[in-house]
Every structure is written in C-alpha cells, then in structure tokens.
Design brief:
By secondary structure, the chain is of the alpha/beta class. The chain has helices spanning 22-33, 58-64, 70-74, 100-103, 113-126, 171-176, 197-200, 258-264, 270-277, 320-338, 343-373, 393-396, 400-415, and strands at residues 14-18, 37-41, 53-56, 83-88, 93-98, 109-112, 130-132, 137-142, 147-151, 154-158, 160-163, 183-195, 214-220, 223-230, 235-243, 253-255, 283-290, 303-305, 431-433. The strands form 4 sheets. Strands 4, 5, 12, 13, 14, 15, 16, 17 and 19 form a 9-stranded mixed beta sheet that branches.
C-alpha cells in the first residue's frame, strides 16, 4: 500500500489519545485517515494561541500536505527565507547556510506555535474527531483485551491508549514502572515573539525586517541567539539559549527579565542588545532532561508513548515537532496493517520502526548544541561551515507513512524472533527538552 489523502474504511479500532499537542493531534488525524476511531483528551480547559517559533521540516511538511486545506492555511503565516546567516557573538559575519538543497526534500513550515496548532486543531475538529478539553487523567490501565484511562473520574476504554501528553506525561510511570522526574540541565532559553514595529523603527535593526523575512544566528561561548522576522517582516521572534542553574522545581516556564537577558549577553553584538531592548515581553523557559527510556510500550502492549512523552528533543535538533508528527503517521499505519485483533503487535512494530531513527535525530541536537557552544571562536573563521545545522537527506527527505507501509512486514518478522529490548538503557545518553 502507499500513502493517500483519502479516508480508509472503518477498522473497528478505538484509539484513546491523551494530549492535544502536535503528537496527539497528528495521531488522531492519521488514525482517522486510516479508519480508526480517535478520542482525544486534553488537560487544558481552553486552547489559546500561545508560544513562539516552532519548526516543521519537510519530513513533517509532507504529512501536513496530506491534510486537505491545511497547507494553504499554513503558508501565509510561515517564515519564508532562503537560508540562515551566521555571525559571531561580537557581530562578525561567518557564513550563510542556504536551504536550497532542503527544498528538494519538500516544504518546511516554520511559524508561530499557537497559530499553527490552531489550524491543526480546527482541522481535526472539521473531520469529526472528538476532542474533550479540561480532562484530568488520574489512571492508565490495560489488560490482554483493552486499555483505557480514568479521566475526570470516568473510566474510558479503547483498544489502545497513546500517551501524547508531553515531557511530564503520567503515562511514563506506567511504562517505566516508576516515576522519573525531570532534572535541570543547566541551561534555559529566553523566548520572545512580538510585532516588529520597534525593530523596523530602529535604524540599527530595520534591515532585519524591511525586506521581508530574515533568519540570523549569533554564536558565542555557551550561548546562542537566533532571530527571525516572519509574515513579510511584520512579526519578530528570537530565542537565546544560555547557562542557568535554577532548580526546575522553582518554575518550568516563568516571565523573563529584559535586564537579566542583557546581562547574559554582555559584550555581544550591539544589534543583539537592540533586539532585546525592543522586546515587550519574554519567557524564561528552563531546559530539562529525562533519562532516555528503554521502551515506549506498556507491559501488555496496549499503551504507547508518543512525541515528547516518549522522546524529548533539544531545540537545536529542530526536529522535536517533526518527529512527533512522524510518530502519529507511523502508529496509524501499523494499526491499519495489524488489524483489531493484533494491536499489541502494531505498537511493538511502531516502536521498532521509530526507535533507532528517533535516537539518531536526537543526537543531531546534542551535536549542534555542542558545536555552537564549544567552538573556538578565535579560529572558527578558518572553517565556519563546521557550524551548520544538520539537514541531511536521511533526516529531512523521509516519508514516515510510506516507510511504515514498506517495512512493516519485515519488522513483524523480526519481532517474532527478537524479544530483547531494542536498546539497553545504559547505551543511551540523556536528552534535554524544552
């Protein structure tokens, strides 16, 4: 079989999805396309247009493009640049990384998280997918025949449960058998998104917005600063990853201080300081990590973790959201091929298909972060292209749906003889998340 935009015949498989982020909504939409019944449970009582910049590579873009009407809504609100300009922290030009090769893989969609999420959320509703807001999940359960959750005191049962509720997922406890709390990584990110009028009215910074969308990176010792203008220069966004020793329990996401951000960036390019001074509001987002999981699947094979609940990503991977979408596309195909009577087999195949690829994608974030933060800035001009983002074909030119159809039979055959854990926990490295 091959990917289509059409809805399949009903499969009789009921999928309960905990979380209405990109992982959960993609899983719901893709399950709907494959004929499965999806119910989404979201803890927030109201979904607001919040956040700042988020990136979806071509590997996620081809998933969007199978959802009628969605690409047309996304295109006007997404950044349109031909590449990324790199500078040293004192403002010296280093090099320009073009996106020309990436465009041959397909279309990327990078824009405001809340605006993109709203489009995807409304698309799910337009398909008739049931999404219940204000849901508090207090229990996961499973046996050999079914799985479910207790939500707002009510017992809800399906064939499988997908825990797509982020890095603080309560489903992780069931899969691991114990609670693993997030830990401080020693880093945090200042994040901001605002109207670009202040940038445009400043002679020092107007070049960043007056000719449409731009994308720039300033790199320094243990700090990097990324800035972008979006919507033909009308909006502006920046993020700054910096050292931070605060205990994660003190606050996951707090209002940031302009003065503190300027202190972190002391001695940096005056343009960076002008950008920060023009910012009306910013968020200080703690980067935390969890120990990587040896499996994403529950003991009886009817509950699976997806997205950040399973595999948090460093922002420098620029792949967290894309890989969450790949999860949704893959699990829907596996369920379609397994049928209702073999859903535990489908979830084990899903993990087998995804696990190694996700681990490799996570490592690109670690590599980029270390390359940017630990560079010898006195010598970097000798080989500035060593700083470039990983945008390789294996990562970007990938069709998760087509791949799942192709390899599923082989994976099922391997599962029949391979009962060992896919990767020993001791072999895995800790991975940070925003």
């Amino acid at each position: 079989m091959s990917p289509t935009t059409d809805k399949s015949q009903p499969s009789g498989i009921k999928v309960i999805i905990v979380g209405a982020g990109f992982a959960g909504l993609t899983a719901a939409i893709e399950c709907h396309r494959k004929g499965h019944e999806a119910l989404v449970l979201e803890s927030f009582a109201e979904l607001k247009v919040l956040g700042d910049i988020i990136s979806f590579g071509p590997n996620a873009g081809r998933i969007f493009e199978r959802w009628p009407g969605v690409p047309e809504q996304l295109d006007p609100i997404c950044i349109k640049t031909k590449g990324l300009t790199y500078k040293s922290y004192i403002g010296d030009y280093l090099f320009y990384q073009s996106w020309d090769k990436e465009r041959s893989y397909g279309k990327a969609y990078n824009g405001h998280r809340g605006e993109i999420h709203e489009i995807v959320y409304k698309h799910a509703l337009s398909l008739g997918i049931e999404i219940r807001l204000g849901q508090k999940i207090t229990e996961y359960f499973e046996d050999e025949k079914e799985a479910g959750v207790v939500s707002n005191g009510h017992r809800l049962v399906g064939d499988i449960v997908l825990a797509a509720d982020g890095v603080r997922s309560t489903g992780r406890t069931l899969v691991l058998g114990y609670e693993d709390k997030p830990k401080s990584s020693g880093y945090a990110i200042y994040r901001a998104w605002f109207d670009s009028a202040g940038i445009a009215n400043n002679p020092k910074t107007k070049y960043l917005v007056e000719n449409g969308d731009t994308h720039s990176a300033w790199l320094g010792p243990d700090i990097h600063f990324l800035a972008a203008s979006i919507k033909d220069g009308k909006d502006f966004s920046w993020v700054c990853t910096h050292k931070d020793e605060a205990d994660v329990e003190e606050g996951w996401q707090e209002p940031g201080s302009i003065e503190d951000a300027l202190k972190v960036l002391e001695g940096w390019d005056p343009i960076v300081h002008e950008i920060v001074k023009a910012t009306p509001f910013l968020v200080d987002w703690k980067l935390v990590y969890r120990d990587p999981m040896p499996t994403w699947i529950s003991p009886k094979g009817r509950i699976a973790l997806v997205g950040d609940a399973a595999h948090p990503f460093l922002p420098t991977s620029v792949q967290g959201a894309s890989q969450a979408m790949e999860d949704g596309a893959t699990v829907a195909v596996c369920l379609a091929l397994s049928g209702k009577n073999k859903v535990p087999e489908a979830l084990r195949a899903f993990e087998k298909i995804r696990y190694g690829r996700v681990l490799a994608a996570q490592k690109t974030g670690e590599t980029t972060r270390d390359t940017w933060h630990k560079a010898d800035f006195d010598k970097i001009k000798e080989n500035p292209e060593s700083l470039k983002l990983v945008r390789e074909p294996w990562l970007m030119d990938h069709d998760a749906e087509a791949h799942a159809y192709k390899v599923y039979p082989e994976v099922i055959a391997l599962l029949g003889v391979d009962k060992e854990p896919m990767v020993e926990a001791a072999q895995l490295r800790m991975v940070e998340v925003a």
